[in-house]
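Can you give me the bound-state structure? Components:
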Amino acid sequence: MFDVPLFLTFAAIAVACAINLVLQTHPISSALSLVGVMGSLAVLYLLLGGQFIAAVQLIVYAGAIMVLFIFVIMLLNAGAEKKPSRRVLSAAVALPLIFTALALGAALITTQIPRTAAVKFGAFQQGGAASVGRELFTRYLLPFEITSILILIAILGAIVLARKEI
Amino acid sequence: MPFDLPFPVPLEVPLSWYLILSAILFVIGAAGFLIRRNIITVFMCIELMLNAVNLTFISFSHTLGKVDGHIFSFFVMVVAAAEAAVGLAIILTVFKNRATLEIDEVSSMRL
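Here's the bound-state model for the whole set.
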């Protein structure tokens, strides 16, 4: 019975934080807004029955990746943007276009998705670590192993980029 | 419901609301990617777009009753982590060589 109020609350928080991310001139404010978006998305994942992915969202995204971002912002002593953002004309043309495209997409989604497709809290029981892990290590074992190669390459790339002489 | 609203309020959240929320977040991220000039903020807008796509995966996973969407969004998170590590290293290198974070001033590859 609390599905709709919870969804509306955290959807509003997510959208407000996302708009704040784009509008703030200081990178630290943008980073904290992004943490807000990720936290409210984690609550929405819980509503959708994904306990494991909500925990991973908080630990990996809001924890590790955002700490990396804030670390770099602090390290580079990044201040606020000095110049005003791009041309006013392009924004005046782009914003109505964006809103029109968004409204068209929303209309398409609401007409194509059947109205009976509703998200009921508790209807999806496979979102725990056990069922996700079972699927991950049986059917998706090869992509999982390839992921480890990807991470190895990313580590090597970061080390190469961080050397002195580049 | 203690009070009456002029429009019918569903007791369960329709799937389309989740998809529309995801579209809104994606569009905000894309707009920020195009508007902002600070290279770190541009990077954060990319992360916002990845998050919006993850929400779509999870909501379809709920509707179809399969766990595959969770696996996909897990892989998206892994790719985002790798991308953040390499991208922030690139940003550090750019800052070391140019002493700027404005993407308009890093334009030596422009034709």
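A couple of observations. The mean pLDDT of chain A is 87. The radius of gyration of chain A is 20 Å.
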